[in-house]
Amino acid sequence: MHFKQILLGFLCCLLVHIIKSEVFTALSHLERLVQLEDHLTFSLEQYLTDQEQQLKELQKFAVQVRHAVNLARKDRPKYLGHPINAFLLIKRFVREWPEVERILSLPSAGEGRCFLFVISKNTFTNCFNFLTEHVLIPF
Questions:
Q1: How far apart are CA 29 and CA 35, in angstroms?
Q2: Cα(9)–Cα(7) distance, rounded to whole angstroms?
Q3: 80-109 in b/e burial notation, b at 16+ Cβ within 10 A?
Q4: Burial (Cβ within 10 Å: 0-12, 13-18, ≥19) of residue 71
Q5: Does the pLDDT of residue 91 top 70, yes or no?
Q6: How far is residue 107's CA from residue 84's CA, in Å, rounded to a whole number?
Q7: Residues 123-133: pLDDT tens digits?
Q8: pLDDT at res. 20
Q9: Is the Cβ–Cβ distance between 117 and 75 less than 8 Å?
Q10: Beta-carbon contacts of residue 79 (< 8 Å; ≥ 6 apart)
Q11: How does DSSP classify residue 1?
């Protein structure tokens, strides 16, 4: 009887040690997820900042062009007859519209691309190799 109590005590200690090890392993995986989430958040914020800057540039260009078009609508021959207006019109088509095209052709989430392109696939694989969908579903 005494032997059973000692064996039961030993098994309990061993079980507690195993459980602590599993908790520690799970915590180390969660720490990697926190680091990854921190990196993802930084990347998302940078992506949003870049997108906001591009939108501001496009909005500024649109306002300038709208102003010029409104002036041209009032009196086209007079507007086009002014050498500075003619120069600015040609300049927009030679320099500024191609820049708008370049900005619009950059990778964006709307085209099915995402800001996550800055993070390699290996980073996700290494961090998520232990995490599967069944972990998220309660037993």
A1: 10
A2: 5
A3: eeeeeeeeebeebeeeeeeebeeeeeeebe
A4: middle
A5: yes
A6: 35
A7: 555 555 544 55
A8: 53
A9: no
A10: 71, 72, 85
A11: -
- Kindly report the CA angle at 103 between 99 and 106, in degrees rounded to 5? 140
In the numeric block, which tokens belong to residue 57? 């540039």
Once rounded to an integer, what is the mean pLDDT over residues 45-64? Answer: 91
- And the tokens for 62? 């649109």
On whether the pTM is more than 0.90, the answer is no
Say what the pLDDT of residue 73 is: 94
Residue with tokens 């591009």: 54
CB-based contact 54:103 (threshold 8 Å): yes
Kindly list the distances between the CA atom of residue 109 and the CA atoms of 9, 15, 53, 72, in Å, as whole numbers in the listed order: 58, 49, 15, 36
The residue type found at 110 is G
